[in-house]
Amino acid sequence: MARDFQQTANQVPYSLGDRAIEHDLLPWCARHAIPVMAYSPLGGANSTLLRDPVLARIGAAHGCSPAAVALAWTIRSGKVIAIPESGNVTHVRENAVALSLVLTSEELQTLDAAHPPPSR
Question: How do 80-83 and 10-13 pair as beta strands?
Fold first, then answer.
């Protein structure tokens, strides 16, 4: 007997520089078991996020790029799927580093201070 499974995901912009979904949408999706798929997790085409000195400093401490840090931040909870740019080998390698990069609570606090979540 074949089963018909339907999976839904909410695909929205989400990054360290665009945290608008944190207070309402992320908790709602979690309550309803709907995965969140973050597009532009590195800030998008005209973003200055990857030139941020805080990301660069944390990346240097881990021996990786600011992009890997930004992507690791986006997927840190395990409840957000990210769609990062992967147009060349360098991007793919940076993306792969982010999968194993664990940011410390101090680093997360530093990133929150530099890129605060939206106020309610």
Answer: unpaired
CA distance 68 to 106: 17
**Position 74, amino acid:** T
Q: 């410390």: which residue's tokens?
A: 104
Q: Is the pTM of this model over 0.85?
A: yes
Q: Which of 79, 11, 22, 13 shows the shortest CA–CA distance to 47?
A: 13
Q: Are residues 88 and 56 in contact, defined by beta-carbon separation less than 8 angstroms?
A: no
Q: What angle do CA 33, 3, 34 make, to 5 degrees?
A: 10
Predicted confidence (pLDDT) per residue in 42-91, tens digit: 998 888 999 999 999 999 999 999 999 999 999 999 889 998 877 889 88
